Amino acid sequence: MRSILYSELIKLKGSKILWMVAVGAFLPAILLLLTASNIVHSGRHLTFLMLIQNAFFFLNLIMGPPLFCLIAGFVVARENQDKTINQLFMYPQSRVLFCLGKWFVLLPIIFITILLLFILVILMGAVYFHLPITASQFIHYLLTVLLVIALQWLLTPLSMGVSMVGKSYIPSMVLGIAMVLCSIFAFQSEKYNSFFPYSAVANLMYNWLGEPITQFHLITSFLTITITFVATLIFCTIYYARSSIHNG
Q1: Which of residues 221 and 87 earns the better pLDDT score?
Q2: Which region holds residue 46: left if phi is over 0, alpha if psi is between -120 and 50, else beta?
């Protein structure tokens, strides 16, 4: 498994897709800066909690779905795009391990993206807006970041499965855009916001922060993410294991 993870990391090294990590961190930070500046200029009180809430609203519901779907689709479909899938399937390794390796290699990408955004938010609040923050608040926000990383990672098999079937990262991009539209509208609905994966992530994050924005069902949100993860990961492993060697 270690060799598979290493090979997946080598494939990503030098890839232009890694620039998306910077985009995923800096674009929400820029949107946050504009939003926070507007709050300050309007005379309203700005806090670190508001910065965290807004930053991860942009990430979970606007930037995260298309970004992480695109990266997951690229990792899965790259061999199909490069016409090297046949060679990959001929290696004396389990295809299930190859599939899991692609899933595991997404974790450091998501981790770096979200952690970088968190660092930018902390610097923005402390340096630019001169907001006070205690050690306990910092730890609580850091744990929130780790929660979001875990939840976003659990949703990546969904876009992996779409890319496996479509043998391209384009379907995962379409899925990501569709998820943005569905999740934003669903998030505003107390009836449906717990049934869409990315709005469920936002629900759990805001509940962890102690400041839920809308009414939602905690258990339903948790089950939505869990069922999505389990079902799509099982599908990915089975589909990848049974893929024809002639598909490349």
Answers
A1: 221
A2: beta
Which is higher by pLDDT, 213 or 151?
Answer: 151
Q: How confident is the model at residue 192 (pLDDT cuts 50, 70, 90)?
A: confident
CB atoms inside a 10 Å sphere around CB 215: 11
Confidence band of 247 (pLDDT split at 50, 70, 90): very low
pLDDT at residue 248 in the model = 41
> Taken in order 8, 10, 15, 21, is the CA torsion positive or negative?
positive
Q: Answer whether 62's CB lies under 8 Å from 184's CB.
A: yes
Using CA atoms, how far apart are residues 96 and 197, in angstroms rounded to an integer? 25
Residue 140 reports pLDDT greater than 70: yes
Is the predicted pLDDT of residue 86 greater than 60, yes or no?
no
For the residues of the chain, what is the DSSP string, one character each?
Answer: -HHHHHHHHHHHTT-GGGHHHHHHHHHHHHHHHHHHHHHHHTT----HHHHHHHHHHIIIIIIHHHHHHHHHHHHHHHHHHHT-HHHHHTSSS-HHHHHHHHHHHHHHHHHHHHHHHHHHHHHIIIIIS-----HHHHHHHHHHHHHHHHHHHHTHHHHHHHHHHHTSSHHHHHHHHHHHHHHHHHHT-TTTTTSSHHHHHHHHHHHHHT--SS---HHHHHHHHHHHHHHHHHHHHHHHHH--TT--
| Model confidence, pTM | 0.88
